[in-house]
């Protein structure tokens, strides 16, 4: 008479006989750590992608896949750019758009921040002004560009006014949100220590709202640039927006691309400047 023995998977003969099991060994898993590339590798990859895109664009124009009449070609755009900077009013247009954008950004951000901070002084004042602020926010301010041009004229003032209109309400609402987030217990503590309302405003409310105001700077620089370009579209004697409008109406697609590229470079420079300003302000707040 023979006996058959069977073993369960994962158990040896001794374990099956004794009925004891050993705890399974756990495998330690670590979170995958992604190694960052060095800066030169990232920059080289970015330029590589751009070079491939430009090469494919030029090749597509040569073989007829891309219509040069509607899309132009990189070689023609480069030639037009050289002519634009050597023979055209490139620096005048760039300076015009830059001035209107910066002035609109500064005026709109400063005035909006002060208006939003002023709501802290009186709840009744804030409740009275709130419907008007919401109404102005809901109105498409770009649709008012022709009216602003008629009021302020075709000069720089109208472009600054449009850029200010786009940034003013956003700054006001952001600063008002900061005012509403001020800690009420800290206000009571200041009052209990004998502080005046002006001291509470200067020592508590303004420092509490500065991070809110800083957070809107990057958005406002883009809105101010948009307002300046729209104003130049409507009516202007200078500016990159006027150049784009003129080139589009005369079917000079290469000049359109040149103005767009210069405008993109200008926006990157201004965005970098605002980022640098934001870092400085944040360091001051932390200190």
Radius of gyration: 31 Å
Helix content: over 70%
Largest sheet composition: none
Form type: flat
Following the backbone from N to C, one meets helices and strands in this order, namely HHHHHHHHHHHHH
What structural class do the secondary elements suggest?
A: mainly alpha
* E-strand count: 0
Whole-number mean pLDDT: 85
Describe this structure in words.
This protein is 75% helix and 0% strand. It is mainly alpha-helical and 287 residues long. Helix 4 crosses helix 13. The longest helix is centred in the C-terminal third of the chain and has 34 residues, at 253-286.
Brief overview, please?
By secondary structure, the chain is an all-alpha fold.
Note the topology.
Blueprint: H1 13-18, H2 39-63, H3 68-71, H4 74-86, H5 90-118, H6 123-138, H7 145-152, H8 156-180, H9 184-192, H10 197-215, H11 217-234, H12 240-249, H13 253-286
Helix pairs in contact: 4-13, 5-8, 5-11, 5-12, 7-8, 8-10, 8-11, 10-13, 11-12, 11-13, 12-13
Task: Identify the notable features of this structure and list them briefly.
single chain, 287 residues, mainly alpha, 0% strand, flat
């Amino acid at each position: 008479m023979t006996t058959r023995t069977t073993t369960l998977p994962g158990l040896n003969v001794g374990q099956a006989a004794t009925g004891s099991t050993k705890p399974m060994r756990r495998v330690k898993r670590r979170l995958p750590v992604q190694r960052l590339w060095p800066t030169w590798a990232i920059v080289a990859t970015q330029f590589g992608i751009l070079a491939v895109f430009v090469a494919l664009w030029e090749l597509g124009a040569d073989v007829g896949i891309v219509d040069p009449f509607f899309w132009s070609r990189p070689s023609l755009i480069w030639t037009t750019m050289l002519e634009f900077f050597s023979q055209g009013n490139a620096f005048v247009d760039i300076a015009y758009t830059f001035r209107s954008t910066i002035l609109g950004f500064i005026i709109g951000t400063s005035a909006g921040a002060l208006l939003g901070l002023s709501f802290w002084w009186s709840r009744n004042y804030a409740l009275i002004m709130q419907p008007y602020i919401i109404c102005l926010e809901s109105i498409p301010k770009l649709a008012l560009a022709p009216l602003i041009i008629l009021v302020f004229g075709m000069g720089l003032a109208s472009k600054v006014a449009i850029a200010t209109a786009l940034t003013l309400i956003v700054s006001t609402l952001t600063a008002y949100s900061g005012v509403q987030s001020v800690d009420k217990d800290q206000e009571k503590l200041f009052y209990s220590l004998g502080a005046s309302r002006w001291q509470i405003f200067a020592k508590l409310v303004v420092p509490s709202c500065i991070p809110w105001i800083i957070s809107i700077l990057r958005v406002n620089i883009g809105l101010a640039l948009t307002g300046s370009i729209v104003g130049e579209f409507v009516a202007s004697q200078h500016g990159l927006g006027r150049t784009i409008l003129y080139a589009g109406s005369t079917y000079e697609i290469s000049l359109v691309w040149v103005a767009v590229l210069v405008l993109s470079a200008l926006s990157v420079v201004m965005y970098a400047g605002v980022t640098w300003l934001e870092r400085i302000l944040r360091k001051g707040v932390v200190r």
